[in-house]
Amino acid sequence: MIPRFLRKGLFLTGVILAVGFSLSPFLFFVLSAFKTENQITAIPPVWLPDFSFVSFQSAVFKHHLFHYLLNSLIVGGTATLVSLSLGALAGYALARLPRRYARFILMGVLACAMFPQITIAGPIWRFLRAVGWLNQYHGLILPYVALTLPLCIWILALFFREIPEELESAALVDGCTRPGVLIRIILPLSTPGLFTAGILTFIYSWNEFFLALLIMTDPARQTMPVGIALFQGEHSIPWGEIAAASLITTLPLIILVLFFQRRIVDGLSAGAIKG
Amino acid sequence: MVMRCFLPKIIICGILILFGSWHLIAAAAPSTTEIVFLTWKPSQPAAWEKLIQKFQKKHPHITVKRQVSPHSSTEYHAIITQRLKNRDPSVDVFLMDVVWPPEFANAGWALDLTPRFPESEQKKFLKGPISAGTWRGKIYGVPCYLAAGLFYYRKDLLEKYHFNPPRTWPEMIQQGEVILRGESDPGLYIYSAQFKQYEGLVCNMLEFLRSNGGDILDRNTGRVLLDRPPAVEATRFVRDRIIGNAAPRGVVTYEEPESLSLFTQGKAIFHRNWPYAWAVADDPRKSAISGKVGVGLLPAFKGHNHAATLGGWHFGINTFSKHPDAAWQFIRFMTSKESQKTLALEAGLAPTRKSVYEDPTIQQKMPHLIAFLPSFKKAASRPPSPIYPMLSQELQRFFSTAIIKKNVALPSLAHTSAGRLKKLLALEAMMVK
Amino acid sequence: MIRKNQFFLLLLLPALSLLVLFILIPVGQSFYLSFHRVISGLPQLGEAMVGFENYRDLFHDPVARHSLWTTVIFVGVTTFFELLIGLFLALLMHRHFPGRGALRAAVLIPWAIPTVVAAQMWRFLMNDAYGTVNYLLFGTETASYVPWLAYPATALGAIILADIWKTASFAALLILAGLQVIPPEINQAGLVDGAGSWQRFRHITWPLIRPAVMVALLFRTIDAFRVFDLAYVLTQGGPADATNVLQLYGYKKMFVEGWMGYGSAISVCIFTMALFLAVVYVRAVGRRLLEARV
């Protein structure tokens, strides 16, 4: 048996390694947001920045960062809600259907996640143009839902399957309707799955670049990845502004995660599984 | 009594009359035409904004709606071709990189501008960009601004060691070695340029090839010259004397920004880049060598002329546009002498109209632009072809492999690549024209 | 019985219709295109049906073969490390300790950054003149700095590192969700029975999180096959095609060069290989994924 203090020490080392591994590249890069232009590409590299906020000002005011952030929030938020709803419905169905059908449909859904996004971008673009949805929010939201549904459905189907059918049968006997069962029993018990699927879907929509590039060319509707790509000039990469923008755009996600990770814990301690 | 009977009818008649006259007035006044200008995001948006506002004021019946793409040539190409190949009329005016007009012309995407842009007008522009916008005798692009490969050097270091700017590449290396020995700065290199596997690599290598009397293609006969001795020698020179020697190995990862950064941080004596680099290198806020920079013609190999690759962008009109006349008005305005002068002074974009170079304001405020003019006049474009993107991919692959893999036999590598180029050119020849 | 199944099929309808509209139909169009010769820049050549010619050319294309090899290496190395590190991170994040929320937020940051930004970030960090990686390794001796992206092997390594950094948290999050559903009583029972931590992990935790790990493995492998953004921004496929992963090659063929048919064939191949792998996984290991647990 490993002595207690050594185990604690190992754990602490693990945490430090985890945080270091995740954060340090980002932190080193983000330092550039506080440096002057000369300092950023100085050879040899400059360590301590001058703490100038020029890059932040430029990113926000000259490059309209918040405008792109807003568009990303609208697109990402809506896509997440729709994807979770449709995914929950489908996942529940797949968790309860006979194995043969469920397996077939699940593999089909998985197959949808396997096709390279680059090639389906063209046909999707043509469809959106035909219905006049280019440069509209729903023109980007719906493809994002379709691209994130496979993962949502799989995660949620797996979670719903963990919930014993007896719980449902008992509720049905008690007079609950089938939709009621879904809303009142199944969903509350699967909050870890829901929030996991939700975060992954939101981040996917947040990050997606190629479809956003093709579909949104109207500056009023462009999302954040395209917006940041627009920072670049013909032959210049404004590292300072990009670093500042990266810092600012990661903040909503950190807040989201900090907020929702407690819900994941709460969901567990609801302890309704005991029945 | 009578009033109450007639009042509703009077009111209705009144409304109808008002309605009718409003419609008549609206119909009589010409409605505005909206043209969509799909552009990349300019590095100096204020100058462009100013010009567009000026145009709209001058032509109150035309509004210009802008759609924006990242400046990256590949991304802009993907966006614009996605629209054009699907015959989308929602774009009226777009931009073309200097190598795109043959592709866009042949595919029927760009409108033939010859009727609106006759030779008498074309003569007012520099020859290189005009011929880049021409395909099979017709013109499809109006040059917006141009660029050419220029040779930058540390004039303070050259003065210190009593050198004139080198005329040949080997001379540049010799001068560099002397300076390195004298300066004893381990981080200093002789040369910095763009050798990453991307389009800029083709521009750089073409300059080496042509300054040795070689080329990729013979423009007149269409024969591939990539595996002929002058081209192979030039490639070998880059592989053996430049990459990892005169220039750091890292140059194979450099595009324009990184290579310029090496120069402006004082870590390279000589540098090849486009005209924009002058403003950056001379700006004390962005460069450690401000005031110490000289610019001139690129060196050549002994017995041959110097070469510079042509760059720049053209305006084009969508063949499927519903407002070609309004689009043409816009382009004519944006390429007028005044507009080009504004873009030069406020956005640093080199004009394509000859008259701008004779303008006293330009001569006074941007003397370096006048100094660049000889290079601009001699700049030659990359092989014009409707399948240039395919040729370019093969060339990028070949050059990148050739300059990195030191133990591969260069002639056979060049020969294989030349074979692939020939196959691609045969495809081009299959078009019935 | 029948009414119950009907109800469930109705639930599936919205999701499946979206998938059909935005994925299956475009996929079908791509399949169709892969059997034709279509070149964007040469519309005069028409859209001839050429059967399997594109696939035959692909098979003989040395660049495509090299691309495939590069992609396979990428998939193998990244998936292995991401799952390993993801498992480690998930176990860490599962423990109760003050600051757990902050750890979770920290771990999620790499995944949260848009891939295009992350790629630019690594491009900056790995720069051979002012990059932070070189600074950490060699200090201010700029002459010793290594141009990581200039050598084929290390360039591929850089992309692998960038991907692992970014996506380990995806696996971690999935596995964490799986860990969260394990009732603490089961672990308690194990403690009471005198089982050590490794035994508890191996006999209690591991079997229960296997489904989550399998989902992570499945989706990560499929995504890794389709890697694009990193190679596109960091190296554009260079140097000398060392990082020319399959989807980047397909993109260049389709959108840059205009080979619509050939590019579609490349996509179909990527799809087929991913499908094959998925079927292998599910058959060999994930059977329990889709079966009821005892």
Can you offer a commentary on this structure?
The complex is a heterotrimer of chains A (275), B (433) and C (294). Chain A has 275 residues and is mainly α. Chain A is built from 13 helices and no strands. In chain A, α4 crosses α10 and α10 packs antiparallel against α13. Chain A is globular. In chain B, α9 packs across α18. Chain B is 49% helix and 14% strand. Chain B starts with a helix and ends with a helix. In chain B, a hairpin with a 2-residue loop joins β4 (134-135) and β5. A 5-stranded mixed β-sheet of chain B has the order 2-1-3-11-6. In chain B, strands 8-9-7-10 form a 4-stranded mixed β-sheet. Chain C has a single domain, classed as MetI-like (MetI-like fold, Orthogonal Bundle). Helix content of chain C is 74%, strand content 1%. Chain C is built from 13 helices and 2 strands. Chain C is flat, with a radius of gyration of 23 Å. The mean pLDDT of chain C is 86. Chains in contact: A-B, A-C, B-C. At the A-C interface, α1, α4, α5, α6 and α7 of A face α1, α3, α4, α5 and α6 of C.
